[in-house]
Amino acid sequence: MALDIAPKRLPVPEQSAEERIKNFNDVVIGYSIEEAVAESARCLQCKNAPCIKGCPVSIDIPGFLKAIKEKDLEKSWDIISQYTNLPAVCGRVCPQEKQCEGVCTVGRIKGYEPVSIGKMERFIADWKAEHGSKVAPKVPEQTKGNVAVVGSGPSSLTVAGDLAKMGYKVTVYEALHAAGGVLMYGIPEFRLPKAIVRREIDNIKALGVKIETNVAVGRSVTIEELQSHFDAVYIATGAGTPHFMGVPGTSLNGVYSASEYLTRINLMHGYEFPKYDTPTKESEKVVVVGGGNVAMDAARSALRLGAKSVQVVYRRSLEELPARIEEYHHAVEEGVIFNWLTNPVEYVGSETGNIVGVKCIRMELGEPDASGRRRPQEIKGSEFTIEADTIIEAIGQGPNKVLLSAFQELKLNKKGYIDADPETGQADPEWVFAGGDIVTGAATVILAMGAGKKAAEAIDKYITEKKAAGK
Amino acid sequence: MYKIISKKLVVPKEFDVWVEAPRVARHVKPGQFVIIRTNPQGERVPLTVADYDREKGLIRMIFQTVGKTTAEFADMNVGDCLTDILGPLGTPSEIKNYGTVLMVGGGVGIAALFPIIRALKEAGNKVYTILGGRTKDLVIMKEECEKYSDELLITTDDGSAGKKGVVTDAMVELAERGVKIDQSWAIGPSIMMKFASLKAKELDIPMFVSLNPIMIDGTGMCGGCRVTIHDQIRFACVDGPEFDGWGVNWNEFMNRMRQYKDEEKMSLEKYKAEMGEE
Ligand SMILES: Cc1cc2nc3c(=O)[nH]c(=O)nc-3n(C[C@H](O)[C@H](O)[C@H](O)COP(=O)(O)OP(=O)(O)OC[C@H]3O[C@@H](n4cnc5c(N)ncnc54)[C@H](O)[C@@H]3O)c2cc1C
Ligand SMILES: Cc1cc2nc3c(=O)[nH]c(=O)nc-3n(C[C@H](O)[C@H](O)[C@H](O)COP(=O)(O)OP(=O)(O)OC[C@H]3O[C@@H](n4cnc5c(N)ncnc54)[C@H](O)[C@@H]3O)c2cc1C
Ligand code: SF4
Ligand code: SF4
Ligand code: FES
Ligand SMILES: [Mg+2]
Fold this sequence. Notes:
The structure holds 2 protein chains of 2 kinds. Chain A has helices spanning 17-20, 33-40, 50-54, 61-69, 73-83, 87-93, 105-108, 117-131, 154-166, 182-185, 194-205, 223-229, 258-265, 293-304, 325-334, 402-406, 437-440, 445-468, and strands at 146-150, 169-173, 210-212, 232-235, 241-242, 255-257, 285-289, 309-313, 337-339, 342-349, 355-368, 374-378, 384-387, 390-393, 397-398, 432-434. By secondary structure, chain A is α/β, with parallel strands linked by helices. In chain A, helix 2 packs across helix 4 (61-69), helix 4 (61-69) runs antiparallel to helix 5 and helix 14 runs parallel beside helix 15 (325-334). Chain A is globular and about 70 Å long. In chain A, 52% of the residues are buried. Chain B has helices at 22-27, 68-75, 109-122, 142-147, 167-176, 190-202, 236-239, 250-257, 261-274; strands at 4-11, 14-20, 33-37, 45-48, 51-53, 58-64, 84-89, 100-106, 126-133, 151-156, 163-164, 183-187, 207-210, 226-229, 232-235, 242-244. The chains are: A alpha/beta, B alpha/beta. The interface between A and B is large, with 43 and 45 residues.
């Protein structure tokens, strides 16, 4: 098929690798208007628009791209903002290659790359914030009912924004001192600037949503209080409890969970110690265990904190790496070294209880396991040691427990996550809805948002019916 | 929000404050703590809720100035507001009628022990309390603890109050008198809790200790507060802070408390310089 469009997407300007490892600023600089207009012209405006189906919040992608092509950026924003409350976030952190861009018609043609949808979404959101018109959104009357939302991550923000638009009075409770969930405490500044998260949260507040920080539901507010004050409750408390491998030496000084390492840096601004009070340690040789986004973020943060060498140890191979591919490429460019098919077996400490090295073993891939990925097995006698003064484990997380432990009646599934209807988010008891990582286990921002979108509709239906029945 | 209502110096470097925190005051139970921040660029530090007034929405904290954040808190005045207070956090103490209980407190740990003493007394226990300190002036809350104790013993390193010696000496004395203890608590400096636990084990007395590792979120999300109890990793902010004193890996615990010594020192010096102090 001969097409009248450029086969390759327009490369997006970025900070050079040498430059960016010295700062925490956004790695990607983003398209200019001219570049965005040129890239939008690569969209074929497919009638069946597979990209929309690939997007968990069903953004009208051809619609907003067409508006860019016609240089009507305000209109493009209006289209996007009908579907998502967090476009600047999704444009930056969605695993686009597995979502919208993964099914883009252009990308399926041999020799062609998909339209750069994520980068365009981000472009519009950033353009709107800097140059767009600043008309305050109409705050609908909050007469349809009262909804409490527990947690303030992307799933909660989506439910809250959508319900506010429908006319509900929404109160979001967040345990930490800042709203945003993982967007604030987990994903680093250089991938997702916190000012941008705050900006999108302010947009949601402008819809009339009330966000109360420093409230741990189950402790500061009881479940009974929630039930008596609200018509329904949405729970999206996330999968934030870090797992540890449990190898000998886990409690040596210098061994961190990625959650701690990243929380110190992002939420607490440890990279600006001592201007900010929370300390981080200077490290020379860092080893990161794991292969997901969290591992990439920890590794790249360690470089920016001044580490001389950062090595990732991953028990499978590049093919199975769960991280977004863009993050992997960025990590390689920045100098992160990858040890494939390797697993730690012991952390070695000094007499003073500090980490000095990690004993690893080589792995080989055996038969596929339940997840369909080939199961790594140890190769006997292949142990070797990597010198390290810092170890960061990023091997996964479990459900946040503060709420669950205070809410014994809430039905959980076998893995300890909330048992919720995948279509509506409704849980047991029926006045509770839930979504995001606390239902699915650690997943993605856009899936958490998708769950919030569906739940907002289901909550509206539930409350409307309940009120009609006079309950 | 989080306004300081009253503040007094109890003993050198130890302050007793009441602060507005209605949600915490409404729900807090003995054994629980809060996480506070003193400024918008501040760190999150845990402090035990030493007392509360549910009607007025107030909580009481007793803290010792040891570094930057506690120094800054000490420099705040009545009418000033803390930036953040989150709580109540942690699993409450197991309050019930055990029969006879022994309560061992040292230093600023006495503040954390006090609400547990009171609750255990109110639950019908016979309460023996041992308070220890280096010297007379450092033994805080004597009258308050005494009020809810059947017997109060004091030990000081220099003999300026009570018996000369350490809290474990008083534990032995009670045992020698034939006092049979069903459950005990020890809250104070790590080294005191360690030796109290060892002694309790020797005397075959079950003992809870309240561990105070370095915390950040206080909600189970970072794993920085992990401690090893009977060879298992536990998170002190959600699984604790109280644990079976017999099972604590004390060396590891004390070592982890020292992780940021150099940075903490630098932070305090910087603060003092900014405040024009020595
Ligand atoms: C380091 C890191 C990098 C990641 N990178 C990516 C990426 O590039 N792309 C991507 O799509 N996904 C990424 N993810 C995953 C993604 O961030 C999560 O899937 C998503 O944030 C889940 O959203 P959520 O709304 O379910 O909950 P979270 O974002 O986890 O938010 C839950 C919130 O609830 C609060 N909370 C918990 N308990 C209570 C309580 N009892 N009371 C009040 N509040 C409570 C928590 O403090 C937290 O703020 C990453 C995750 C991490 C950790
Ligand atoms: C559950 C719990 C309850 C506590 N209750 C009280 C109390 O009622 N009164 C009281 O005086 N102290 C209490 N502490 C200890 C108090 O949190 C620390 O003294 C305080 O954080 C020191 O902060 P700083 O900046 O002033 O000193 P720094 O100089 O920063 O630290 C001094 C020492 O305190 C410890 N520490 C530092 N940061 C933290 C942190 N974020 N969390 C915990 N410990 C830390 C370290 O061992 C450090 O070496 C409690 C601690 C915990 C975990
Ligand atoms: S939200 Fe994610 S999946 Fe949807 S269009 Fe944007 S980048 Fe693609
Ligand atoms: S699939 Fe690709 S080309 Fe087709 S409408 Fe969507 S973005 Fe445009
Ligand atoms: S303080 Fe973070 S898990 Fe306990
Ligand atoms: Mg400090």
